[in-house]
Each structure stands twice: as structure tokens, then as C-alpha cells.
Amino acid sequence: MGYEQISTTLIAQRAEVSRGALTHQFPTRNDMLVAAFEKLVGEWREGYPFGLDPGKEQLSVDALVDALWNNIFSDGRYIAAMELMLAARQNNELGHALRDILVTWIRVRDRITVQLVGGNVDDAEADLKVQLHLSVLRGIAMHQSFDSDPQTARKLIELWKQIAQKA
After folding, report:
1. Which long-range contacts (CB under 8 A, 24 or more apart) does 87-90 make?
2. Are 142 and 79 in contact (CB under 8 A)?
3. Where residue 90 falls among pLDDT bands split at 50, 70, 90?
4. How many helical (H) and strand (E) elements, i.e. helices and strands, does the chain have?
5. What does each C-alpha distance from 10 to 28, 38, 79 come to in angstroms?
6. What is the three-state SS of 27-82?
7. Taking the mean position of all CA atoms in its chain, how far away is CA 85?
8. Of 59, 86, 83, nearest in space to 70 by CA
9. What is the DSSP code string of 141-167?
10. Domain extents in the chain
11. Exposure pattern of 85-121 as b/e (b: 16+ CB <10 Å)?
12. pLDDT tens digits for range 107-139
């Protein structure tokens, strides 16, 4: 079910709270979606690997790919987040609020990711490599959402790590 089909009534039912209690906390559906997205991005920012101090800890590219896959991209909530990220392209109230969260998150995420693999944050090629890793993982996450073989994603991750080692 896409974010466009989610209603406050449905969410209240699944959360086992009254619709009134839900709307008291989140007056509009957009308020609720923005809060959910902000919470998820906060979990990513504080969790592994982004919670690491790149000045003290480094990861191999393989370890980084595994950490990103295991802690973000393989999580079923990632696809829901992708739908919201796509909604951020819209020039409306929800789009603006989500873009604000995304812009801040992306700046932090990319900087930390480059540093975690020992790269220089001012190196355009290092940044481009990070974008490639993220793009591949994003694609595998999307593929996983409709693939009937649960092992395919793991095989693709392993193949990507082999390719990345040669680059």
C-alpha cells in the first residue's frame, strides 16, 4: 500500500488508538507522514554505521555496504521511505517539508559515508563513489520488494562488493 492510500483512520486502527487521539497529536495526515519520516531518518542518523565517529573508526567498502544494507536498505520501512522521498519531488506542503528533512540528512549522510571509508569529503570522486554505492543498494532494495526469491538480494550485494573491490 502506497503512502497516498494511507488514511489517518487506517493508521489509528493499526496503532490501536482513537482517531481523535491521533489527530490531536498530528492534526493533518501530512504532519503524521513528516513526523514518521523524520523519526526514521533520525534512527538512520543515530544508528550503525552513521552513529560511528569517522575520526575514530573506519570501515572497508565491504563492511560499509553490509552495514548500509543490513541497517537501512533491507528494512521494509525503506521502501515506504522511498515513496515519501519520491513524494518530496512534489511542489506542495508535504514535498517542501520532506525535502527539508532530506537535504539535511543527505548532507550529513554523504559526508559521514565518505569519511567512514577513509575518503576526503572535498574529493568529488569519493563522493561520486558513495553515490554509486547508495544507488546500487537503493536499486537492490527496490528489486527485493517484488522478487519472490529472498536470496537474490544477498547474491546481488555479494556481487556488488566483488565489483566494487575491482574499481
Report:
1. 87/3
2. yes
3. confident
4. 8, 0
5. 14, 20, 19
6. CCHHHHHHHHHHHHHHHHHHCCCCCCCCCCCCCCHHHHHHHHHHHHHCCCHHHHHH
7. 9
8. 59
9. HHHHTT-S-THHHHHHHHHHHHHHHH-
10. 28-166
11. bebbeeeeebbebbbebbeebeeebbebbbbbbebee
12. 999 999 999 999 999 999 999 999 999 999 999
Q: Which three cell numbers stand for residue 90?
A: 512534489
Which grid cell sits at 157?
A: 550485494
Q: For residue 16, name the pLDDT band (cuts at 50, 70, 90).
A: confident
Total-model pTM: 0.86
What is the largest distance, in Å, between two alpha-carbon atoms of the chain? 56
Q: Could you give the C-alpha distances from 56 to 47, 111, 144, in angstroms and in order?
A: 16, 15, 34
53-84 pLDDT per residue, tens? 999 999 999 999 999 999 999 998 899 899 88
d(CA 141, CA 153): 8
